[in-house]
Specification:
This protein is mostly helical. The chain has a single domain, classed as Cytochrome Bc1 Complex, Chain C, CATH 1.20.810. About 65% of the residues lie in helices and about 0% in strands. The N and C termini lie far apart (about 60 Å). The structure holds protoporphyrin IX containing FE. Protoporphyrin IX containing FE binds near residues 26, 99, 111 and 195.
Length: about 325
């Protein structure tokens, strides 16, 4: 009866046996992180003041005087990093199982857009962390993008400070876009059904588990993940730096930005934009670059080698950024 009114059973589509494990649940766990970020972010938004002169003090009050304030901030901090890692692992799972091949090319592109937005969400989120330093990075971004970088400069409006605009992007536009794309992503997963496993031949008579049972499994993994993140939030809350001073850089950006900083040292600030555009451009293009019907990773030596080389290069580039 409820189903007649709410259409819940529409979710109950068949899921093959091979998808009932952790690796094929990484997209679901990324979703758990996104929901946790929305909930903790809404709580923080009640107490954080994005006006530049008041931002640092409002975080100071939040972590010392507000009930669960320090925990909510720490949970938000750790969950953001977990979402980035899980989305990356999910991307790698999809890549190595060739789940982006026909007819899922479009969903790969929607996924890449969500990954890019996750990256931007972390970047704009560090405005609260690093205050004026992140602002300085924004001015760098503006320089790199030339005319198109106008949005990143304080000159766009004399009434709305740039930190406030970045905060709106962080708290409203980026999560809103991720949410819209997520609906599209999930509808496409339902339409195409979960991809076949490259090493397991499809059974002749399929008796797959309904998606609702899969949801229960993802929820169980999700609870364990939330437990771990809560533990991290209690044991290792992020430190709050001193009141920021414009033009002085003392904190190191979060680790997911480290890979492109050596480029700045070697080739100048403009190379950062080129490198980021090249890496995300390459990810967007994967289904068009690898068009063979082969699905096993061993049968796709070029694609596998390219992915491994790219990952190793990024991992090696990251520690080269000076502390
Ligand atoms: C950033 C947030 C993301 C969320 C919340 C998300 C969520 C999901 C979920 C829940 C599924 C169902 C199956 C599974 O869990 O493996 C899925 C499947 C899929 N995702 Fe994502 N995803 C994200 C990012 C990405 C990225 C970065 C890519 C690739 C560039 C991607 C490509 C795909 C594809 C192709 C499928 C179908 C997989 C199959 O049928 O085996 N997703 N996603």
């Amino acid at each position: 009866m409820i189903d007649e009114r709410m259409g819940i059973k529409a979710l109950a589509y068949p899921v093959p046996e091979h998808a009932n494990n952790l690796t094929w649940s990484l997209g679901g766990l990324t979703t758990v992180c996104f929901v946790t970020l929305l909930v903790s972010g809404i709580y923080l938004a009640q107490l954080y003041n994005p006006v530049p002169e008041l931002a640092n003090q409002s975080v100071r009050d939040l972590v010392t005087h507000v009930w669960l304030g320090n925990f909510a901030r720490a949970l938000h901090y750790w969950t953001a990093q977990a979402m980035f890692v899980l989305a990356l692992l999910h991307l790698l799972r999809v890549f190595f199982h060739a789940s982006y091949k026909k007819p899922r090319e479009g969903n790969w592109i929607v996924g890449t857009a969500m990954f890019l937005l996750t990256f931007l969400a972390v970047f704009t989120g560090t405005v609260d962390q690093e205050g004026y330093e992140a602002l300085a990075h924004n001015l760098d971004v503006a320089k790199v993008l030339g005319g198109a970088g106008f949005w990143f400069t304080p000159n766009l409006s004399k009434h709305v400070p740039i930190v406030l605009r970045l905060y709106t992007a962080h708290a409203v536009f980026i999560p809103g876009l991720i949410l819209l794309l997520f609906v599209w992503h999930a509808l496409l997963v339902k339409r195409h059904k979960i991809s076949p496993h490259p090493d397991i031949p499809a059974p002749e008579t399929e008796t797959p588990e309904p998606f609702t049972a899969r949801l229960e499994r993802v929820a169980a993994f999700g609870l364990v993940l939330l437990g771990l993140l809560s533990l991290l939030a209690v044991l290792l809350p992020p430190v709050l730096g001193p009141t920021p001073v414009a033009g002085i850089e003392i904190t190191r950006p979060l680790w997911m930005f480290w890979w492109f900083f050596p480029m700045e040292q070697w080739f100048g600030i403009a190379s950062i934009a080129v490198v980021i555009a090249a890496v995300f451009g390459l990810i967007f293009l994967v289904p068009f670059l690898d068009r063979s019907p082969k699905r096993r990773w061993r049968g796709r030596p070029l694609a596998t080698a390219a992915a491994v080389v790219l990952l190793l290069t990024l991992a090696v580039a990251a520690p080269l950024w000076p502390v």
